[in-house]
TrEMBL record:
GO biological process: translation
One Gene Ontology term of the molecular function aspect: structural constituent of ribosome
Organism of derivation: Punica granatum
Keywords: Ribonucleoprotein, Ribosomal protein
InterPro entries named among the record's database cross-references: Ribosomal_uL18_bac/plant/anim (IPR005484)
Name of the protein in question: 50S ribosomal protein L18-like
PANTHER family registered for this protein in UniProt: 39S RIBOSOMAL PROTEIN L18, MITOCHONDRIAL, OS02G0689700 PROTEIN
Amino acid sequence: MRPFLLNVFFSKRFIHAKVMHRGTSKVISVATTNAKDLRTSLPSLTDNNACRVIGKLIAERSKEADVYAIAYEPRKDERIEGKLGIVIDTIKENGIIFV
């Protein structure tokens, strides 16, 4: 069973990502480009650099909560490429294992 699930949402203005426990729906870590510190420091809130920052933040915050393995289930007809691929690759590079 894969208890921790990654959820990534891309809007026209922001990127939201969270890791949650599947059984209890408890949110373990959250990162968004709509946060005050990222809104002012990033030049663009939806480009590839913002995806890398979100991936790094999710990995760091998940490690702080002692979560080292997460799963991602793509939606119907969704491919893991582009911005989503950048977020997932950055999370992998920062030490989180995908099950």
